[in-house]
Amino acid sequence: MKRRTLNKILKNPMSITGDAQIDAQLNALLHSGDIEQIKQGLEISQDMGILEKSVDAMMQANVYRPNIMGSKHISPSITFILLTMQDKSQKTFGFWKDFELLNLSGLGATKLPNSIGLLKNITSFDASSNDLTKLPDTIGNLTKVEQFYVSRNPSLKTLPSTIGNLNKIRTMSLDFTGIEKLPTSISNIKGMDFLYIKETPMFYDKKYVDKLWQMLPNTNIKPYI
User: Fold this and answer.
1) pLDDT score for 92
2) Which residues of 14-31 are buried (b: 16+ CB within 10 A; e: fewer)?
3) In this structure, what are the phi and psi dihedrals at residue 66, rounded to the nearest 5 degrees?
4) DSSP 62
5) Do residues 82 and 55 lie in contact, with contact meaning Cβ atoms separated by under 8 Å?
6) Would you state the pLDDT for residue 18?
7) Tell me, what's the pLDDT at 3?
8) Which of 6, 85, 106, 152 is the least crowded, having the fewest Cβ atoms under 10 Å away?
């Protein structure tokens, strides 16, 4: 019963996405209360072709809850499922334009869908407290992002070079990651106010911190300054 609606949409009784690892994660998420919201919204759908209408219906039913800034958002687990579905669809879901804050924190995810690159209107990106080993190159499409959080991903060793496209970032949090060095394109983010690198390999490499100061002369590198 918990997987019936999603399986009907994907027309596959054995798999949600076709990726065993992601399927296991999503199957676990289907036991949360938030999943009932997406299931209710998707019950009017018969196939992936009208998933967009279902999500629009969810918006009308206030499944998208306003946050303190008034921006529409949904829970991390639902967002992750929708992004994973988008990766499997040949049609771009129009509702991505309404996303302003992307929260994928605390899911235990090891990778993020490439489709996050479609969320071009978001100003905040939060994928903290996961098990990420890398970020997709498509992250470079999120050029409106001002807040960027990937802290507490201990297996994350670096950021893609496309991070330099996000030149509106004001705050970047990399605390408690495995990041040893940042791509040289980071110097493109000239307006960054704060860079947090506590408990990273960079944190213990004083020479590299000096190099970061040279690349980001206007940035307050925490906890050093």
Assistant:
1) 79
2) eebbeeeebbebbeebbe
3) -70, 140
4) T
5) yes
6) 53
7) 44
8) 106
Q: Which residues of the chain have pLDDT under 50?
A: 1-17, 29-52, 54, 57-71, 225
Angstrom distance (rounded) from CA 74 to CA 87? 18
| Closest alpha carbon to 187 in 162, 212, 150, 204 | 212
Residue with tokens 């190099």: 211
Cβ(165)–Cβ(188) below 8 Å: yes
Q: 160 near 184, Cβ under 8 Å?
A: no
In which residue ranges of the chain is CATH 3.80.10.10 found?
A: 100-225
CB 174 within 8 A of CB 153: no
Determine whether domain 100-225 maps to CATH 3.20.20.10.
Answer: no
- Which residue type occupies 144? K
β-bridge pairing 72-73 and 65-66 = antiparallel
In this prediction, residue 25 carries a pLDDT of 52
Tell me how many degrees the CA angle 220-223-225 measures, rounded to the nearest 5: 45
Task: Report residue 179 as tokens.
Answer: 């990041």
